[in-house]
């Protein structure tokens, strides 16, 4: 790893996902190494950061990571709470803290939430979907658990670059919607590649007896997209921002239903 | 008989797409899709026009319905939408506030 990418002496790590660098400060060298391993490929040397967190490690507890997350906004600060971690973040100063035990899962959850907050301000979205680049174009495959996100990722041909098998990172840039690779993994447990491409299509996954692509009415497209948008915050402004972002997305990106049998031939339709 | 006034709740996000009105509660992110009658009621709910006038001028004009039945159905619908905090209802006119309703997306 280049020395500038992770300044080990200062126990600082910059994790850049979707072109949004987040600096993590810790005093624990073991934890730093854990993060370097966890986010390999997403470590950055960027000086400019969108958010910065001091991580305070606590002693192991029996706290439940399965407990539902609570994200609230009060007096200009975001508060993130789950059984296994607490965090606060001030979007104005970009400073915050995370309190957790030395594990990679809690900070991963905190980072996902922070990225939803960052994206919401820019018209971007985190989606429950797999995504991959083929022929210079990004394709998103959305669906609930069991719909086939992992399966279609596993079936991807060698010329397809997997961005994620679980959570897609979509930003609205001047050129249009762009999908980025993420380290947020699902069952495949394989980090996405840290690359990006313009979004060419969103497919709603359905497993069926044949491979086919069918058009989806705009209303259904919007509803399906909204059902797959990650937002955690109990905050009216953020809900409204995500709602309007979803409509903006379906007005600009083709949305279709992809019915597929679980074999590699489905990728003949995705080009 | 007291008149009923209805107003769109400014704390929801709403969008019309191909004639289909979708509304999301800012409180709990619940998504509602309104049918044609509910959409007319929602769009006409300016807080100043009484519900009976909306029924007479917008709903009865659009659908072949008996006015008394249409009024009863509209009140039921308005109270249901109010229970989800999509609409506000009052026996007095409701002062307008900035809303988050956007027009057609496509």
What can you tell me about this protein's structure?
- The complex is a heterodimer of chains A (271) and B (106).
- Chain A has 271 residues and is α+β, with helices and mostly antiparallel strands.
- Chain A has two domains: 8-120, no CATH class; 125-269, Rossmann fold, CATH 3.40.50.
- Chain A is 23% helix and 36% strand.
- Chain A is built from five helices and 16 strands.
- Chain A has helices at 29-38, 104-120, 149-154, 218-228, 236-252; strands at residues 12-17, 20-25, 43-44, 51-57, 70-74, 77-82, 85-90, 95-100, 125-134, 137-142, 161-164, 167-173, 176-180, 196-207, 212-215, 255-260.
- An eight-stranded mixed sheet of chain A has the order 3-1-2-4-8-7-6-5, with helices on one face.
- In chain A, a hairpin with a 2-residue loop joins β6 and β7.
- Chain A starts with 11 loop residues before the first strand and ends in an 11-residue tail after the last strand.
- Helix content of chain B is 36%, strand content 31%.
- The model of chain B has no long low-confidence stretch (mean pLDDT 87).
- In chain B, the strands form two sheets. Chain B has a four-stranded mixed sheet.
- Chain B is globular and about 35 Å long.
- Chain B has three helices and seven strands.
- By secondary structure, chain B is of the alpha+beta class.
- Chain B has a single domain (5-88), classed as Outer Surface Protein A, domain 3.
- At the A-B interface, α4 and α5 of A face β2 and β3 of B.
């Amino acid at each position: 790893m280049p020395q500038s990418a992770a300044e080990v002496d200062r126990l600082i790590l910059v994790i850049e996902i979707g072109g949004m660098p987040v600096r993590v400060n810790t005093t624990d060298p073991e934890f730093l190494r854990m993060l370097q391993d966890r986010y390999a490929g997403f470590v950055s040397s960027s000086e400019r950061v969108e958010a910065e967190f001091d991580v305070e490690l606590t002693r192991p507890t029996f706290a439940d990571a399965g407990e539902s997350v609570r994200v609230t906004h009060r007096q200009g600060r975001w508060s993130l709470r789950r059984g296994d971690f607490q965090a606060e973040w001030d979007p104005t100063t970009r400073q915050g803290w995370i309190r957790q035990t030395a594990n990679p899962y809690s900070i991963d959850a905190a980072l996902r939430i922070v990225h939803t907050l960052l994206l919401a301000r820019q018209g971007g979205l985190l989606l429950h979907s797999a995504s991959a680049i083929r022929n210079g174009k990004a394709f998103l495959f959305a669906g609930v658990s069991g719909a086939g996100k992992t399966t279609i990722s596993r079936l991807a041909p060698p010329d397809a670059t997997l961005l994620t098998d679980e959570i897609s990172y979509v930003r609205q840039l001047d050129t249009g919607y762009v999908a980025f690779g993420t380290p947020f993994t699902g069952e495949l447990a394989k980090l996405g590649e840290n690359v990006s491409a313009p979004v060419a299509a969103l497919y709603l996954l359905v497993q069926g007896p044949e491979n086919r692509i069918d058009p989806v009415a705009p209303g259904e497209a919007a509803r399906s997209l909204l059902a797959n948008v990650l937002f955690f915050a109990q905050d009216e402004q953020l809900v409204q921002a995500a709602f309007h972002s979803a409509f903006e997305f379906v007005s600009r990106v083709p949305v279709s239903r992809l019915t597929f049998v679980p074999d590699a031939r489905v990728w003949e339709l995705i080009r | 008989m007291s008149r009923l006034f209805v107003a769109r709740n400014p704390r929801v996000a709403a969008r019309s797409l191909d004639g289909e009105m979708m509304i999301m509660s800012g409180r709990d992110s619940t998504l509602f899709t309104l049918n044609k009658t509910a959409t007319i009621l929602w769009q006409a709910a300016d807080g100043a026009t009484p519900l009976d006038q909306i029924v007479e001028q917008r709903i009865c004009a659009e659908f072949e319905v008996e006015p008394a039945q249409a009024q009863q159905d509209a009140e039921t619908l308005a109270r249901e939408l109010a229970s989800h905090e999509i609409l506000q209802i009052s026996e007095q006119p409701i002062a307008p506030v900035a809303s988050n309703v956007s027009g057609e997306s496509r």
